[in-house]
């Protein structure tokens, strides 16, 4: 399957959140809720990507993200941790991110730990994209049990043991 760049999409970051957003390749996603009150959730997951480098300076977005302050579990993968940092969630915390962004994370947290997954209190940060499966399995173990993890690993044909987890 070949990816083709859409020719009539906007590539600028919109200053206002909307019900529809397109990525740089033209993939468009439409949502049914805009800026829900994040405090109503038990867990929020903040993904990363190249857009986080600019989005961390978007005060409207960061203010909205701060509504998750009372959420029981806050999780990020890749450079999603930069957004958590910009929202103040990493203050006095240890965290990780994509190895290519360790330096960008330094100003937001107490210490950048160069590992795959870091759990500091209710905050879980994970490294690059390949860490996503390990992160999912780690979360399943936290909320369910090790047996559930083994069942999932068998279903997805994942022969690896989760490693590189630091719990502070």
UniProtKB/TrEMBL annotation:
It holds the Pfam family DJ-1_PfpI. Residues 19-141 form the DJ-1/PfpI domain. It comes from the Bacteria. InterPro entries: Class_I_gatase-like, DJ-1/PfpI, INH-QAR. This is Thiamine biosynthesis protein ThiJ. It comes from Paenibacillus crassostreae.
């Amino acid at each position: 399957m070949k990816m083709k760049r859409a020719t009539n999409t906007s590539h600028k970051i919109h200053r206002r959140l909307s019900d529809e957003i397109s990525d740089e390749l033209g993939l468009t996603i439409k949502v049914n809720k805009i800026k829900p009150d994040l405090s109503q959730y038990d867990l929020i997951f903040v993904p990363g990507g190249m857009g986080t480098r600019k989005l961390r300076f978007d005060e409207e977005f960061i203010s909205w993200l701060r509504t998750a302050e009372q959420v029981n579990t806050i999780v990020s993968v890749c450079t999603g941790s930069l957004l958590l940092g910009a929202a103040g969630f990493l203050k006095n915390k240890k965290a990780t991110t994509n190895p290519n962004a360790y330096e960008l994370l330094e100003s937001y947290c107490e210490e950048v730990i160069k590992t795959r997954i870091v759990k500091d209190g209710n905050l879980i940060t994970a490294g690059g994209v390949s860490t996503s499966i390990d992160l999912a399995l780690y979360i399943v173990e936290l909320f369910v049990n090790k047996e559930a993890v083994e069942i999932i690993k068998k279903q997805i044909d994942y022969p690896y043991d989760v490693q590189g987890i630091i719990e502070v």
